[in-house]
Specification:
The chain is of the alpha/beta class and 327 residues long. It has 11 helices and 12 strands. The structure holds ligand PBG. The site of ligand PBG has 10 residues, from helix 6.
Length: 327
């Protein structure tokens, strides 16, 4: 056979396949999203997300311990308050659920790194990500509340804040208040390129944060748009974002790749609740192999450009990396 190039030469056995891998993953880049809820003695499984739970502050230690053991050092906290109101006031209450969870978690597990999701939708009675004016979410008056929320998280011990609301100008508003109060060293990871997505369905069930009317298309991005991702990324960089996130992950790898190529900051990808739920449901039905799906989804996201990966499968992935199954 007259054939000089044979790609199969580099696939001959596991050793050479590992040697020539283009994508390598490290546990240090994983972030585990975790739900904390007001109340006591609560460890409730989330219906649409088998294996994921809402923890009250007194119960979350078990999960944090499992994470630390698995070698996952970053946690992203989401709060579910007992009471919600028009202005989402529990989001920035000094004794709010995230603030209390942070203090306790930092006391018990000081070596973990705590990131908080900054948004209003889990805290507002109407489930939208900001203050309403009529039927619309008002951008500029929401900025004050987001800034207050971020500040209260940092005062309670957050190592990093992550605004996910998609109001215009929120990174600047948060950066400004943090700097004013002497927190200029606390980084902001912005959900810069966040699409209005059906993949958030299970999360809204988990957090009770589905909008009571309308949808989020007036602030989250239209999934027909790719170049607009760079517009959003560029703006957040100008406003002082340290890390840019693309969300969801799997259906947006083109956008992720663009953001990676066109910017020079770390890029995060969030494999959201619907991605988790799809894998779980298909695996439970016996249609796919769960572990293989988790690995392939993760590696493809890193391959597309992610430096950081947020996933509900963080513990499992850390295990697969440890075993050498991927990475
Ligand atoms: C808050 C927020 C949401 C998610 C992360 N932060 C929900 C939403 O925008 O509706 C979704 C995460 C997931 O689906 O796993 N705004």
């Amino acid at each position: 056979m007259d054939m000089l190039v044979r790609p199969r030469r580099l696939r001959g056995n596991q050793t050479i396949r590992k040697m020539v891998r283009e994508t390598r993953i490290d546990k240090a880049s994983l972030i585990y999203p975790m739900f904390v809820i007001d109340g006591e003695n609560i460890e409730e499984e989330i219906g649409a997300m088998p294996g994921q739970f809402r923890y009250s502050v007194d119960k979350m230690a078990y999960e944090l311990e499992r994470l630390e053991k698995a070698g996952v050092t970053q946690v992203m906290l989401f709060g579910i308050p007992a009471v919600k109101d028009e202005a989402g006031s529990q989001a920035y209450a000094p004794d709010g659920i995230v603030q209390r969870a942070l203090k306790e978690a930092k006391r018990q597990f000081p070596n973990l790194y705590y990131i908080t999701d900054v948004c209003m939708c889990e805290y507002t009675s109407h489930g939208h990500c900001g203050l309403l004016k009529g039927q619309k979410v008002d951008n500029d008056s929401t900025l004050d509340l987001l800034a207050k929320t971020a500040l209260s998280h940092v005062e309670a011990g957050a190592d990093m804040v992550a605004p996910s609301d998609m109001m215009d100008g929120r990174v600047l508003a948060i950066r400004t208040i943090l700097d004013e109060k002497g927190y200029q060293d606390v980084p902001i990871m912005s959900y810069a390129v966040k699409y209005a997505s059906a993949f958030y369905g299970p999360f809204r069930d988990a957090a009770g944060s589905a909008p009571s009317f309308g949808d989020r298309k007036g602030y989250q991005m239209d999934y027909h748009n790719r170049r607009e991702g760079l517009k959003e990324a560029g703006l957040d960089l100008e406003e002082g974002a340290d890390i840019l996130m693309v969300k969801p992950a799997l259906s947006y790898l083109d956008v992720l790749s663009d953001v990676k190529m066109e910017t020079c900051v770390p890029v995060a990808a969030y494999s959201v609740s619907g991605e988790y739920a799809m894998v779980k449901a298909a695996a439970q039905a016996g249609f796919v192999d769960e572990a293989s799906m988790i690995c392939e989804m993760a590696v493809s996201t890193y391959r597309a450009g992610a430096d950081i990966y947020l996933t509900y499968f963080a513990k499992e992935l850390a295990g697969f990396i440890q075993e050498g199954r991927i990475g």
